[in-house]
Design brief:
Length: 515
């Protein structure tokens, strides 16, 4: 770790200079608002077969030729399994208030059934280190790493996987229930189901709309069953899940075909998961879209009552929205990893729907930077779903990969990421001021890590990881984040001065991208 007085002072000076050039006003964060950082087990831990861990679907997938950029794997990743104490110490020095991490199912139940006590020992060490450092643990039970043994028995398209998930969740709770109060079941079931089983870009790499739909239902069933089981053990736990959202706008709001294109994306990405949880039903229009793909064969009486078990907190992952049309654009944002495997659209029933770039700035993922979408999303969630349920909101992921260029000391002066964080935090404050109970924000990610099909080619961290030496170096964005946490003040980008903060309205430009 390199966070000595000299380097951090020098970097802090630079961050201050940046804030001077970017900001005309400071904005206070809401009272009690929690600022944290997020990671996930497979992306950082490494220690593939250490102390009884067996393979997950991501081990198998990343070792499949052509599946991940440059053949990268999570075998070592950030070696967090062995360096967690150093990582927690760095979080503490930055002032991080809460740490969102996930437990690895394949570490805790290597064969999908029997519990590996040594795997739980690791998470106990981690949680104890966090508590000693004054950092609140926020635990996610499933961040995409299904034990390969369960995939071999059919994976998420098979109903029994939901039961095994409950067993695993209870095993983790047996060990950590007295120390962790916030438990989220799933991270982004849309990705697990549709990027994993329909598009094939993620593990396990299947390309079947029917399997994606079956997986989505069983993931949500596993969520509901786990919420019920944990709730009956301890009524004081904060329970919920994290969903990933887009804000789908029609390219031409006056064109009914574009409106329908946006509806399909919103339905199959957002409402497909929100409606079962908050309304106890799948949306009628989505059921019509996916008719013939077999979803109804998996939905048994009582399932939706289980899935709609009340939750305390909804985790919101937001990176960007999109503009959609029935017409293809002239030029497209690419966004696809440079791998050799063929993939298809993750949407089970959105053929002929095209995403259009809007001329907004983009990150190195080719994801548009659209902070105002986060305000719109949070307000909508509150008004249409969470408000009446009394469910609070946390932004559990938001962040950006940029083409970081370290200096000789490994320091990255990542001005674009500083601006990204400030503008999105400011959008969260806009939502709070509009009456939405958003209680916290976790930056994705604490440190650079294994970015799924992109391997180590994309860096989201506010802390740089040198993968040759495993040295951690806080970037300017980490120092700026630490300053925000310390001062509770946000320097905002001034609109009067004409700075581009990504708040342009969607407009049709060009491109060729199917969703
Ligand atoms: C989210 C994932 C997270 C990370 C970010 C960039 O979809 O939950 O693991 O890869 O994207």
């Amino acid at each position: 770790m390199t966070l000595n007085a000299t380097s951090s002072d020098r970097a802090a000076d630079r961050a201050e200079q940046q804030s001077g050039s970017l900001s005309a006003a400071a904005r206070r964060l809401p009272e009690g608002f929690v600022l944290g950082v997020a990671t996930a087990a497979y992306q950082i831990e490494g220690a593939r077969h250490v102390e009884g861990r067996a393979d997950s679907i991501w081990d198998t997938f990343s070792h499949t030729p052509g599946a991940v950029v440059d053949g990268h794997t999570g075998d070592v990743a950030c070696d967090h399994y062995h360096r967690f104490a150093e990582d927690v110490a760095l979080m503490q020095r930055l002032g991080v208030q809460s740490y969102r991490f996930s437990t690895s199912w394949a570490r805790v139940c290597p064969d999908g059934r029997a519990v590996n006590a040594k795997g739980l020992d690791f998470y106990e060490r981690l949680v104890d280190a966090l508590l000693t450092a004054g950092i609140t643990p926020w635990l996610t039970l499933y961040h995409w790493d299904l034990p390969q043994a369960l995939e071999d028995r059919g994976g998420w398209p098979v109903r029994e996987t939901a039961d095994r998930f409950v067993d695993y969740a209870l095993a983790v709770h047996d060990r950590l229930g007295d120390r962790v109060s916030t438990w989220t079941t799933l991270n982004e079931p849309w990705c697990s189901a549709f990027v994993g089983y329909t598009s094939g870009e993620h593990a396990p790499g299947r390309q079947s709309p029917a399997d994606g739909l079956a997986a989505a239902h069983h993931l949500m069933l596993g969520h509901g069953q786990t919420v019920r089981a944990l709730r009956s053990r301890d009524a004081n736990l904060q329970l919920g899940l994290t969903l990933n959202f887009t804000v789908a706008d029609p390219v031409d709001p006056a064109d009914p075909c574009d409106v329908d294109a946006a509806r399909r994306v919103d339905g199959q990405m957002n409402r497909m998961f929100l409606d079962p949880v908050f309304r106890g039903q799948y949306p009628a229009d989505v059921l019509a879209d996916v008719a013939g793909l077999g979803l109804e064969h998996h939905v048994r009486p009582g399932d939706l009552a289980t899935i709609s078990a009340p939750i305390d907190v909804l985790g919101v992952n937001y990176y960007n929205g999109g503009a959609f049309s029935h017409l293809p654009p002239v030029t497209a944002l690419s966004g696809a990893p440079a791998t050799t495997r063929q993939t298809r659209s993750p949407f089970p029933a959105a053929d002929g729907v095209h995403g259009h770039p809007r001329g907004l700035p983009v990150t190195s993922m080719d994801w548009e930077v659209q902070p105002e979408g986060l305000t719109r999303l949070l307000v909508r969630l509150h008004e249409e779903y969470t408000g009446r349920a009394g469910t609070t909101l946390h932004v559990t992921e938001n962040g950006a990969a940029f083409d970081d260029r370290p200096d000789e000391q490994g320091f990255v002066d990542d001005r674009a990421r500083v601006e990204y964080v400030r503008s999105h935090l400011s959008s969260v404050v806009d939502a709070v001021e509009a009456g939405v109970p958003v209680q916290g924000y976790f930056y994705w990610s604490f440190m650079d890590n294994f970015e799924w099909a992109w391997g180590y080619a994309k860096r989201f961290g506010i802390v740089r990881v040198d993968y040759d030496t495993q040295e951690r170096t806080p970037k300017a964005s980490a120092l700026d984040y630490a300053r925000i946490i310390r001062t509770r003040e946000l320097a905002v980008v001034s609109r009067e001065r004409g700075e581009d903060d990504g708040r342009r309205s969607p407009q049709a430009t060009s491109g060729v991208s199917d969703v």
